[in-house]
Amino acid sequence: MRLCFLLVRRVPPVPSPVLEDVFEILTRRGFRVEGGIAEEMIQRADSLRVEHDLYLLKSHTELSLSLAGVLDAQGARFLNPYRNCHATQNKIVASRRLSAFGVPVPRTWVTGDLALLRPIAEEMPLLVKPYLGHRGVGIQVVRRADDLERIPPPSGPVIVQEYIQGGDEDIKLYVVGEEVFAVRKRFSSDSFTRPGRPSPVSPELREIAQRCGRALGLGLYGLDVVEGPDGPFVVDLNFFPGYKGVPGAGAAIASYVERYARGEIVLELPTLPPPTSTQASTAREARLIEANA
Predict the structure, then answer these.
(1) Which domain holds residue 118?
(2) For residue 112, what pLDDT is reported?
(3) H-type helices in the chain, by residue range?
(4) What's residue 289's pLDDT?
(5) In this predicted model, what pLDDT tens digit does every residue of 142-172 receive, in sequence order?
(6) Both 114 and 249 in a single domain?
(7) N or C: which end of the chain has fewer CB within 10 A?
């Protein structure tokens, strides 16, 4: 069985120890493992065709997602499924899905005009994020309304969340199927390059992590959690993360990939349930703020 990993450029540019373990284990189990970084290859888009039994989307770049979309349209199998990855990468879509499935997320708005945020920024600090961003690129903290004036006009839609003040460390939850692992580390612009400190997973965090997977139909994924005064909040979610700092991650991932490749696991993007009364009230509140802006 042929597997193809669509990989992302690593920072720093060194091989991933976790993926090296995954490749070695899968190869020993009889799989033919191949892969590459989309940005470091040239493809004939008009003749790209399915050549592998399973593709594993390990990159969040627009080029990788575009190539995956071409292959998906021809019936290629993906782990995680392409449609589910596409929904996860779009932070607007993902935020709505997480909220609908009962995941605690910060209050969230979307816009293409930062000036419309002033009435909200006068009431609370905000985080402004590109709606397709990853690795923390382009995130802006708005602590007061005047901070909006220093942010360049966005080139596309932005997602805006209430800023949740957490402790000294953030929590990263890594999920492989039903297994949930946790690491803690200080957040910084390059914290994604460093492993965290393994930490116990509480029943509450385990349930939150599994809700995220159900909301977006994912089997390999990670989420960032901030422990605020009112409890934990999920502030970011990504498919097939790096699993840095997770003991035995390579073996767990390889076993999951094998089961998925052999058809023992199916992941589907569920239908979005209707909004609850609380969510409907929040939507009305957002419309009132916009009308009075």
Answers:
(1) 107-163
(2) 93
(3) 17-28, 62-73, 82-89, 91-100, 118-121, 203-216, 249-261, 277-292
(4) 43
(5) 999 999 999 989 888 999 999 998 877 889 9
(6) no
(7) C
